[in-house]
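Our consortium's second objective concerns turning raw sequence data into structural hypotheses that experimental partners can test. To show how far this objective has progressed, the report includes one record in full. It was chosen at random from the queue rather than selected for favorable results. The single chain below, 312 residues long, was entered without modification.
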Amino acid sequence: MSYTGEIISLIVACMWTITALASEIGTKRLGVIGLNVWRLGLATVFTAILLLVLTGSPYPVYADGKTWLWMSLSGFVGFFLGDWCLFKSYIHIGSRYGQLFMTLAPAATAIAAWITLGQNITAMNIFAMAVTLTGIAITVLGRGEGGKSISVKLPLKGILLGIGAGIGQGCGLVLSKIGMNHYTEALEMSGVTGMDNIIPFASNMIRCITGFICFALVILLNRNLKKWWDESHDRKGMSAMLVAVIFGPFIGVALSLMAVQFTAAGIASTLMALTPILIILPSHWLFKTPINAKGIIGAVISCIGVSLFFLI
């Protein structure tokens, strides 16, 4: 029996882990806005090169106005608002806990799909949400002074940013689905065939362009162009950013799409969602993040909650 899809999925989970760790380093040295300008700008360039090789055009050919509208909305919600919250959370609670809150994304996706696409929320979906929230609660809550009350063990601002990141990713995914549906329709009306595997890459390029423009506008409107350029001379920060780009929006996304071609989407999604567990040890080695049984158990339970969305 071949386990190609499962192996690729595990590799992707490792890549997401590397991306999170590198992003935390880059964010602390380059800032959230500066890092994302470089990250999304380079991701756009790399994707353009990929599209040029695969389709002969460096931009999303045949994408109509509706595709650009919905994918741009997805880029704004997912890459701008969502990633701003995620990378900002790295500063306050670190990448390990930031990735833990990303397990909220499937729940946010289910709710957003129910609102916008009319998809049903099943009893199992609700149970999966409860399990995920339980895992997060176990990790971030503890006994207060005297052991008689419950207190939050992480900065509230970091928690809110983590929640915002999970919601942003989930809602951005639903908007992407709407956009890709329009892209598929545009290709069918144009009589184009054989581009089904290209749609995710071309669509993601629109998201990257939107996110890049939003972050660049923040720099320009705040007149921080010189500060951004000066910070870009930080070699360690730029190296971390480059690692985050290569293992994240570029190779990581490509392998995640490849994984679902070799195994069931539910299995692939579950294995790729193991980052909150895989990141525990390297986060301790790099950033001295404490490891305790409660944190490990909470991360495992959250990942089980995520798996329930995809496997049942």
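The partners drew two points from this record. The mean pLDDT is 89. The CA atoms of residues 143 and 154 lie 13 Å apart. Both points have been shared with the crystallography group to help prioritize constructs.
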